[in-house]
Fold:
Amino acid sequence: MQTPTQEVERELRQSVVIRFAGDSGDGMQLTGTQFTTATALMGNDLATFPDFPAEIRAPAGTTYGVSGFQIHFADHDILTPGDEPEVLVAMNPAALKVNLPALVRGGLLIINTGAFTRQNLDKAGYTTNPLEDGSLAPYRVLAIDITALTLASVQDFNLGAKAAGRCKNLWTLGLMFWLFGRSRESTVEWLRRKFAKDPNLAEANVAALNAGHVYGETAELPQGVGIYQVAKAELAPGTYRNVNGNDALAWGLVAGAQLAGLPLFYGSYPITPASTLLHALAKLKSFDVVTFQAEDEIAAVAAAIGASFGGSLGVTGTSGPGVALKTEAIGLAIATELPLVICDVQRGGPSTGLPTKTEQSDLFQAVWGRNGDAPLVVLAAATPGDCFYMGIEAVRLATKYMTPVMLLSDGFIANSAEPWKLPRFSDFEPFPVHHHTGPVEGFHPSLRDPKTYGRVWVKPGTPGLMHRIGGIEKGQDSGNISYDPDNHHAMTKLRAEKVARVADDVPEATLDSGEPGGELVVVGWGSTYGAIRQAVAQVRAKGRNVAHLHLRNLWPLPRGLAALLRGFDQIMVPEMNNGQLDRLLRAELLVDARGFNKIAGQPFRIAELAAEIERRLGVAPSPHANVDVRA
Amino acid sequence: MQTPTQEVERELRQSVVIRFAGDSGDGMQLTGTQFTTATALMGNDLATFPDFPAEIRAPAGTTYGVSGFQIHFADHDILTPGDEPEVLVAMNPAALKVNLPALVRGGLLIINTGAFTRQNLDKAGYTTNPLEDGSLAPYRVLAIDITALTLASVQDFNLGAKAAGRCKNLWTLGLMFWLFGRSRESTVEWLRRKFAKDPNLAEANVAALNAGHVYGETAELPQGVGIYQVAKAELAPGTYRNVNGNDALAWGLVAGAQLAGLPLFYGSYPITPASTLLHALAKLKSFDVVTFQAEDEIAAVAAAIGASFGGSLGVTGTSGPGVALKTEAIGLAIATELPLVICDVQRGGPSTGLPTKTEQSDLFQAVWGRNGDAPLVVLAAATPGDCFYMGIEAVRLATKYMTPVMLLSDGFIANSAEPWKLPRFSDFEPFPVHHHTGPVEGFHPSLRDPKTYGRVWVKPGTPGLMHRIGGIEKGQDSGNISYDPDNHHAMTKLRAEKVARVADDVPEATLDSGEPGGELVVVGWGSTYGAIRQAVAQVRAKGRNVAHLHLRNLWPLPRGLAALLRGFDQIMVPEMNNGQLDRLLRAELLVDARGFNKIAGQPFRIAELAAEIERRLGVAPSPHANVDVRA
Amino acid sequence: MTKNPPTLSKKDFSSDQEVRWCPGCGDYAILAAMQRTLPEVGAKPETTVFVSGIGCSSRFPYYMSTYGFHTIHGRAPAVATGLKISRPELDVWVITGDGDGLSIGGNHLLHVLRRNVNLQIILFNNQIYGLTKGQYSPTSAVGKVTPSSPVGSIDQPICPARVALGANARFVARGYDVSKQLPDLFKAAYEFRGSAFVEVLQNCPVFNDGVFDLITDRKQGPQHQLWLEDGRPMITADGKKGVRLDPKTLQVEVVTLGEGGVTEDDLLVHDETNATLAWLISDLPEVKALGVLYRDPSAPVYDDAVRAQSEMARQKGGGDIDALLRSGHVWDVT
Amino acid sequence: MTKNPPTLSKKDFSSDQEVRWCPGCGDYAILAAMQRTLPEVGAKPETTVFVSGIGCSSRFPYYMSTYGFHTIHGRAPAVATGLKISRPELDVWVITGDGDGLSIGGNHLLHVLRRNVNLQIILFNNQIYGLTKGQYSPTSAVGKVTPSSPVGSIDQPICPARVALGANARFVARGYDVSKQLPDLFKAAYEFRGSAFVEVLQNCPVFNDGVFDLITDRKQGPQHQLWLEDGRPMITADGKKGVRLDPKTLQVEVVTLGEGGVTEDDLLVHDETNATLAWLISDLPEVKALGVLYRDPSAPVYDDAVRAQSEMARQKGGGDIDALLRSGHVWDVT
Ligand SMILES: Cc1ncc(C[n+]2csc(CCOP(=O)(O)OP(=O)(O)O)c2C)c(N)n1
Ligand SMILES: Cc1ncc(C[n+]2csc(CCOP(=O)(O)OP(=O)(O)O)c2C)c(N)n1
Ligand code: SF4
Ligand code: SF4
Ligand SMILES: [Mg+2]
Ligand SMILES: [Mg+2]
Structure:
């Protein structure tokens, strides 16, 4: 037996991108998550991107049933799950077929030969066996019969063929832990906790994990396959965890409600990729949270509005098609000036579109997608961890300005995990809501704060302040129904002005990187953050004066934005849609913002962004097929 | 008895604006409509504006129960119902209270003193009787106890007090016919037709009408009250009728369906001010029209989509809140590329807003208000008669490009009537739809016309072409579900491009009046047409080089628009909303369009538009309280 | 449910807003019945909330001096559910119409009833869309001529009580606008724990005058009113007729007492707790069942269950955000 | 309904698309039953349309070689109504799930049934939201633990058949995925003129495995299956038990034949045309009524009425646009 991990000679790498791929039933998400935890505990910076099939459980072996999980880890600050994997784990032919095109030439390919049966090859659409036809020559191949080795490793546990076969992801994980010098400890712990009721199964899985590890230690690795090490990243000191966007958002909303001193009511109807937000909040009942799975999206938002009327913080979450259905009711919240947070976890559209893929195409809908002049506040989270802060911010603005706030996230942020330095809750400034508790001289329900224009929020149950609200236009001076022309004009202006004033209450526009007045500024919003930041850094490293500005406040736009943008020669707006923020900037600021658009259900790669920046600077020709320029 | 009408000496007027006002129960709409018909038959040009109370039948005598009808008629081409009435008929104190502020100083005031009881004065909020307190001194007052005179005129018919009292609008109409030299003939005919089953009632009404007329002929009219004449307008020769926008739209849709050779399916749910479109179409079953009153707006549009799938022309109509509800389903029509016409008869918003008042605030919703990248064609009708042409155009574009078309109208167009020169149906070019009738080599449902990009439209029932469509992204080359990233990018681009190509198929941007390259161009859309045209004419008459451009194609914008607009020093965009077209022009054309906004539920007055144009030209200061500048 | 000194009166539940229904509208009587009922049951204006959709009927909240929310078309049950779940101590009433509640809002009605949220739903059934000027509604008779059905409606109407029973409603009652018993029905609804559904037949003199004359008319009404009393045989209000069941065919017929030897003993006896019976009599041919058709107070109440789960969670502790963020795997970087 | 040469077979109704449900899903059996039924009833692929909403079940149309429309969540009944009204000669089937049809789409289901549009609705009831990964649905049992109800659902379930009856449905049937009789039910639905509602109990092995085992299991199933036959007494499939009605209380009980002297004569006899009976047996405690619960072919069919009004209008003449524009007051300017 070989010496323990730490004493072996390992090749040093600054960063590695690995993609695990297999059948939906192969447990790839679990494998990826465990690898992520172990990697985080090693002190690397990391980012992940799970890629589920659209089918719940596609038939085994099919290409559309392939499930993938990509992790990027490094000894330095990274922000994206990596453009292309350098290591691909393919648990069956379909996984190889789907993912090989992404693997860099010369990349490491770990293959479970046990799954390369004629039947599986057929299902994946291979006429010849890639293990034999030479097509894998450009890669470093580590071909192992993982199925057989797994079965051997757990034979003492009498599991039955099916359960025994299921351990092969743990075997693979053990091997990967060895290759990349990660500790098995956290996974062993997790297995024993998860299978606490079935210790035999737990130990079988541990045995498979160990067997994979031992295989790495003892087997003669083929030419070109080494073992690797990635040094700790220099991360800011603190306590960290991995978090995905929907969990972070759930926690942010709960934190916001606590800062406001309000119970939280979450009304929702399941929809991909927003459902996990409902799932996360459903577990937080001890935080003064009530979740309500409504009969549809309209009922979900209507119930949230009812709860807000009752003095709770009403929140509703969904994806694009659900927002469409909520549109009319959101107008009611605007007209009645009740606080409401609407979370839109965007996905590919239009219509049912690509439900499991990411997109940023609901910005128009968020800002302009309602009947009548119906302004509300629109925010966007940039990263999974940012969802926590934006969740709090949404609650703050909704309650302070008595307005609906639309918070945009997307399928990429919602599902991918990143290490997140945990804040201390005591560092957040509370923003308690004050409700009247008894009669008030001259009260009427259209009274408002002269500064924020926030309407008075009186809870039913308060003696002496009984009043009626509704969606018909209300008199500015009485709160009663008013058909007066001048009043409607004034109220329309007032609703617009109230939302506009939020701009005085949020940070002025600032550059995320780069200096004012350069050659080109890249303006982004939402989940493109990491890719843009890295791309801008790359181009700046070549000495070009480019900058990055990332918008979290989409409506109203932050103060100072026009001046800042006008200082640049060019304004480039990359979006995972067909051009929406570019239009918004042009409409509001009259600046020549030009889009760079990728509508492929997938995040931008750093390289394609960097290349486009260089093209616009006159350095390089245009890249990629499915990315377009829009002006 | 005096000599007949035509031989009397009458004061010549170029135009007159009359407002009839009374209780909801006083029959003012009927009075106005009859006056309109008689006026049209006199050969005057005219425009009308009915103004209903929001309540179905408000208690008698209340100010919020006042119903008004304004008519503007002239010996020349006019386009609006007039800024301010010069003649006001007030049937009770509430009608006087509500409408007097609008009457020009020195205007003629015809008052039914019979209704000025203490009780009615109280209900209207008068502490003193305006007939006695001198407050009417600035006007020329014709105070008549119409109630008593009416009762006297019909006493021979034994009607009962209630029915007899109801004849007072006819008495008033008779008097007005005398004062303004209109013939009673058409009204007499109409009465006899309407009450064919009750000839006694018909004759009583005729008697009241005649009595009012005779009163005018014989009574000593007070100082300052003359009798008037308005010469025939020089109208283009042809056959004319009065038409309101919803009727014209119904006929246009039916005409369009005939030109396409398709049955028309209209799915709708009642909503003000779109309901009368349903009512109009429900009467046209003999035109191969099926109307379906659905359980809600979602079912209405869904049924229309189902009908389009079946090979009919699916149409759905509603107002803003209904469009909001239809949003998700419209996305389905976009994704499946089925023809669909969505009529939005806009009203005051947000939310329930001001249902009976007009507004143009759904433009954002029409162009940008959907989840995902979801383009469709947006058209807007400028006048009641224009609804006919735009109805046809909507059908043409929807079927040729296989796309939903949103057609914007508004409460003002829907309800007001204008004389309309009737076209000949044979002058319209048919645009028949061709459906395959049997198997086609290499068929798949994503096949499209290479020029228009219109998708193939195959009716279920066609042998050999069975296929499935749906809202999930489809492969460009197969029509089957596709999760392929590049395909989604390509399909998104294709959907956008298809709609963009409509711009090649509609007229280039042209000025409605004025010449290119002037000081200021006023860009309008929808029902502001008449007011803008007249205001521009007024300012031009003063020698200023201003122009008017009116958009019927809101999306895509017409070719040549950017160049045309850039030629002007200033671009002014008046809208009955808080600024939407100005934003659209800036976003798309990067031109400095500046809004002029009135959100009062009422049309622009010519004077306020002319004054604002002059202000922008540096001639005059800004006018009116409830109109704002937006830039 | 809140108790208060019995000093409150109808006036205390009337707002200062002018009532804006058409003269003669049945809504006035329903409003008066409600304003009379609330002081009697000990409700307080400040803990009472009326939530409505859109329609003539839905203007109701403006005329009550309680809290009120005039929402959007069809959605009142959903808004009320959110309100009641989060504020169970409030008395929540939903006001809706046959269009608002059964056309656009049918699904929310179904779901609030099946969940058995503890609130009262009053559906004003005038068999017409009043506010939009007289189109036929889901309860309009076949053949009804309206602006949207110029040659007569072809839609088969639904029976609101049957829709409610189909949705598993636990309290179903029926009354009419000008009936003296209306306050009693409101009272029974108020006292029921769970969703109480009350259909009120309401005359719309403008667009559908007299559709319920057969039942509500002073003269002919009593012959057609079947006021239900728990445990009592089913006899019309004029005492002349009754309802008999053929147990073999499960068909009911309206029989004349004394004719062919029919006595009270032959008649069906009302049992409020029997859903099948309620179903059976909800849509009788000649007579209209009025009063409480069905009442099952044994079913769990939704908002109780919400509260119970919240309590359970709270007892396990929690509420510490820092602890929440630090649950699961965390690690320290130093 | 179209007839064709009997040469068509199951294969002729199978599309070339790979079926993408989870292995073991009950949907496979339902699909096979449909593909077997259609050739037997003489349907043709080109005149058959499947319209579905969203859900696992709603992928069904892709696997049929007929015309198909996979619409949006909950709206299939409305899309199908528009299609059927405008193309009455087509055979239109609606495929929906317990979430699609009873949660978001409950209102459209209600209204298509009450209108009695001539189409078939097959509701796949797996008591769960399959496609969105296992949240509870309107038919899930109270206490069901799912990701959105981590301590158990508190929503009282509804009975699809009762909802349908409440909506005035004229054909209500129930079957289960792997049952041999399923094609017979589809056939009966197809042959019914009007809206035919068929609930199919369907196993979701991934998120709700075995919820219907009591009924569908080979062994214990027959004890709990109450297959209905018109005019026949109600006896469970194992022949051992039956359903008896107490005509006084209108309560039913499940009794064992031979026990306490109970014979077939004591049992309820099924009468398909009796809505009250259908209501009564739609939600029995120990056994599940299967087959045709209710069938009323006498009710007018919506699309027939649409056609009749169109015909009437057409006979009066019309269709001339110029005449339309010139109807009413016109005048000439020369
Ligand atoms: C989304 C939407 N659709 C349509 C309308 C128009 N609308 C208002 S009330 C109403 C129907 C009213 O009927 P009902 O509920 O029976 O009330 P009633 O007026 O008869 O009391 C309709 C269709 C609306 N306000 N909102
Ligand atoms: C507007 C909208 N809301 C939510 C969803 C997400 N969604 C898709 S299917 C579904 C429920 C599916 O349940 P069911 O109808 O029972 O079908 P099953 O998958 O169980 O066959 C939901 C909530 C959606 N696609 N669209
Ligand atoms: S329209 Fe009918 S329901 Fe509405 S207020 Fe008038 S009478 Fe009442
Ligand atoms: S999730 Fe359930 S219902 Fe959906 S395909 Fe899988 S087994 Fe069938
Ligand atoms: Mg009604
Ligand atoms: Mg289901």
Observations:
- The pocket of iron/sulfur cluster (ligand 3) is lined by residues B 56-57; C 21-22, 25, 27, 56, 126, 130, 204-207 (CB under 6 Å).
- The radius of gyration of chain A is 27 Å.
- Chain A is about 35% helix and 20% strand.
- Chain A touches chain C through 71 residues (CB under 8 Å).
